[in-house]
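As the next step, I selected for study one protein, both as residues and as discrete backbone shape codes, as given directly below:
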Amino acid sequence: MTAAQPQLSVVVPVFNERDNVAPLVNEITAALRGVVDFEIVYVDDHSRDDTAAVLQALKAQVPELRVLHHVQQSGQSTAIRNGVKAARGAWIATLDGDGQNDPADISKLIAARDGGGVQTKLYAGWRVNRQDSGSKRWASRWANAIRSRMLRDDTPDTGCGIKLFEREAFLDLPYFDHMHRYLPALMQRAGWQTVSVPVHHRHRTAGVSKYNNLNRALVGIRDLRGVAWLITRSKRTAVREL
């Protein structure tokens, strides 16, 4: 049974991923049962297929599974944030709902956290062997190079969906649409350290991608400018109670 206060919450945002739901849930439970007390929080972003119904049926088989549903489509960042807000674990692992992230890598991120310092609040997956199309890999390299130059976040791959972070630190970050692409820079802005951990990446086996290179680029330019502005306007100071 799911612990009342799990140590880890696995948050998975999904939109029209009905054929990927059950295989990924089964992989998560296989990877984590007996390793850590966990829950799985799926957030259905108002899918137009029967993703929500598939998830609801799975709840009878998987006691760790919880399902949230957006009453209107709101995007991946909002789905992640709502999942984190509903989560009961002090630490959050995120996975993309398309099955391209390997749930077995969550243990690798946990091991990195357990060997890390208390100032490190984000362990970000780094896809060292991307299994996307050539155009997507090229666009990602281009975007990462520009982002790194502007934000100086020392992160080779911010687009990887598998991450491990402290819930409290995440909820203290400024929220905006597409913020999930800039978590290392935002965590560093808040005064925390971040670490990139090499992880597996897999081919999509069902469904279709929800993004293309053009819409990512157009939104990304605007977001980059906004995050760069946030960094220049940040101010941190130590606080002590008198």
